[in-house]
Amino acid sequence: MQLSDTIKTSLKGLRQSKTRTALTMLGIIIGIASVILLMSIGQSAQDYILGQVQGIGSNLIFVIPGGSNKSSRLASPASVQGIVIKTLNQADLEALGREASIANVAPEVRGQARVVYGSNDDSVTFDGTTPNFFSLRNYTIVEGYQFTQDDVDSFNHVAVLGSELAKTLFENFDPIGKSIRLNNLNFTVVGVLGPKGVGPGGIDQDNIVLMPVSVAQKQLLGIDYYNTITVQAGDAYDINFTKARVTSVLRQDHGITDPNKDDFTIETQADAEALLGSITSVLTLFLTAIACISLVVGGIGIMNIMLVSVVERTREIGLRKAVGATDKDIIQQFLVEALMLTFFGGLVGIAVGALLTGLIYLGIVNFTTVAWTFALPMTAILLATGVSIFIGIVFGIYPARQAARKSPIEALRYE
């Protein structure tokens, strides 16, 4: 029998049992749509997370107090684990500022407090830093202005608010020049940041108070060390070279001769991107593997329905074999039917998956402030198509062989 005749016969058989065909395809449709949806969401999440990391600035190096376990990529510095480390100070900041490969450097001290204006209040993170911090971290001022080095030197109580915090405290009023209270200290609002999203350490940069580092360090926290020093590599220098120079400067400043006894940890923006990229990739792979379980279930459903079809069409099989059809012809016919079921089910599943991905995208961008991106990776479509065809072959072979093994005489006698 010609392949074209087999395809026509298979299409006719599928059309004659529309309900059974639709129910058989349903498992494949759900499985393929799940694979498309989860891979697309995973890709969008990865793009969003990496975009957040890239949006904090460029060529950045983060110096964190406390050494880390260099044998483990996932090990975190002691300071990140909540242990107070006091190894970064003003001398380190000045030493790094003299390094030629560094274009910009800014310290940070951080704390939690309740901020109050009138009857409105909120719990926030406050960051004490220097004016360099704004350009280094790509902050934009949409109202007012940023504080200056004179404010830092003079311990002026001035503050720049995150965009959401400004709305929470002042609603529709202009916040510039107004006085807010934070931990029993009054601050004059001089600026408001543009929307920024979540930053390093999971800090909501839209619900933050930025102030001169001198005020935060001495008057709010009562410390003489820094929580972080952020460094920006010069455009003419490779970031790995600058990282090596930062390490060398700090070791010299701290009198460290044994690299295994560093009392600081250095991470680059690229390190963070690579780590987050690998984590999101593993999560996407894990979710896709879970979705593939439904494909296997759908394949088993196809096999069961095809076995029932073999029983129902026993007389037809006997008649075909009686007029000269070979075992190969019978196997080919049932295998083509299984492939058609999975192929068309796969196409519908891809369309459904793409539609659901689009609806989720529209829901997120229209009802949240998350800068979500629409992603429909070609790998998801190719994987879904390939898996659907593979399932059709694997789960269609057994029913096809069962049909081919039937004796024509016994088949014609079947009632």
Strand percentage, roughly?
15-25%
Number of strands: 10
Radius of gyration: 32 Å
Structural class: alpha+beta
Mean pLDDT metric? 80
Give the SSE map.
Elements: H1 3-16, H2 18-55, E1 60-65, H3 90-97, E2 102-117, E3 120-129, H4 132-136, E4 141-144, H5 149-153, E5 158-161, H6 163-170, E6 179-182, E7 185-193, E8 208-212, H7 213-221, E9 228-233, H8 239-254, E10 264-268, H9 269-312, H10 314-322, H11 327-367, H12 378-404, H13 408-413
Structure in words:
By secondary structure, this protein is an alpha+beta fold. The chain folds into two domains: 191 residues, no CATH class; 177 residues, no CATH class. It is built from 13 helices and ten strands. Strands 2-3-8-5-7-6 form a six-stranded mixed β-barrel. The two termini are 26 Å apart.
Briefly characterize the structure.
The chain has 415 residues and is α+β, with helices and mostly antiparallel strands. The chain has 13 helices and ten strands.
